């Protein structure tokens, strides 16, 4: 796996892990976040997140704004089928820095969930999720 792939994988894994930690990290929040029960995120295992991360890497490097890449968790060993899309959009360039929003969609058991982080890279370097 290339350095760029590892960086994007870590970045998206961190994003997804952060959402999971917020959802289940505090008993006082658990009651208020019960709406997350049975969403695709709750069914995602490490291997599923890796499949999504790999698809995001490919999409960020190969797709034009608005072009989607399909992804699925086929072959990850998860009995729950999770499918979705990765769609880069809103590419901006300032000098040698390129930034993009990327919409990640996951569908499982009739539920759909999406996230749209902003990622940037310098030159052909690593894509990094930008904190707001």
TrEMBL record:
Region of interest: Disordered: 66-94
Domain Surface antigen, residue spans: 43-130
Biased composition annotated in UniProt, kind: Polar residues: 70-79
Source organism superkingdom: Bacteria
Protein name per the record: Surface antigen domain-containing protein
């Amino acid at each position: 796996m290339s350095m760029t792939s590892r960086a994007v994988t870590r970045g998206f894994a961190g994003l997804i892990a952060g959402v999971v930690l917020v959802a289940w990290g505090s008993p006082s929040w658990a009651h208020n976040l019960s709406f997350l029960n049975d969403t695709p995120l709750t069914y995602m295992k490490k291997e599923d997140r890796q499949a999504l991360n790999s698809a995001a890497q490919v999409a960020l490097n190969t797709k034009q704004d608005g072009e989607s890449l399909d992804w699925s968790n086929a072959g990850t060993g998860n009995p729950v089928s999770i499918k979705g899309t990765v769609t880069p959009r809103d590419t901006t360039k300032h000098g040698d820095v390129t930034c993009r929003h990327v919409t990640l969609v996951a569908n499982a058991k009739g539920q759909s969930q999406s996230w749209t982080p902003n990622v940037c890279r310098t030159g052909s370097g690593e894509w990094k999720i930008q904190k707001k």
